[in-house]
């Protein structure tokens, strides 16, 4: 993912790259704040249940610490969300401009009957998914890693045995992520071809209205209906697997 993110940074403008660096820094700060907040619950719970100070502070002091962590989290996550959307919008605008310049420079022989459908999906679904990486995936990914590392350090200090168990659980979690990614790729391989065909049929139906109306067939498009019917079937097949 880091290699993909480094490649996606290339279309960003100078302001977009500055915001991207700020997003990375804010994601790390958010991760540390989240980790410290979760760690602070341990002594706070001990102080609450035992009625005695834990880690040198009483329950009131730990509640103040949690309140300060909540305030810091509110500020940093707000700034992070704003910067993430700014990077995403910068990426989308620059990519649309780059795709338009590339298409305008192509010779007419490069365009085929299914080019319109492929291009419509490229500048809609695929490009939006790439833009969502900056807005909804990159910063949570970095923040989750930093949060986990911060919690791992705190748990190890609190209980070395529990910290060792958490370290041993990392390969299990990584294996689960790999299995989920494999299933996701299998699902995409099943539904992507019929989705491209459906997009092409929709564009074809819109551009051939004159001929269809002349033949009295403007109300339905049998080939488009068959293309749309194929996609749910493949999804049901994936669900059975």
Automatic annotation (TrEMBL):
This is ABC transporter transmembrane domain-containing protein. Pfam families: ABC_membrane. InterPro entries: ABC1_TM_dom, ABC1_TM_sf. The keyword rRNA-binding does not apply. PROSITE patterns: ABC_TM1F. The lineage of its organism: Bacteria, Bacillati, Actinomycetota, Actinomycetes, Actinomycetales. It comes from the Bacteria. It is found in: Cell membrane. GO terms for molecular function: ABC-type transporter activity; ATP binding. Keywords: Membrane, Transmembrane, Transmembrane helix. One of its GO terms (cellular component) is plasma membrane. The chain crosses the membrane at residues 23-47, 59-80, 127-155, 161-180. It is a multi-pass membrane protein. Residues 23-179 form the ABC transmembrane type-1 domain. The keyword Transmembrane helix applies. SUPFAM superfamilies: ABC transporter transmembrane region.
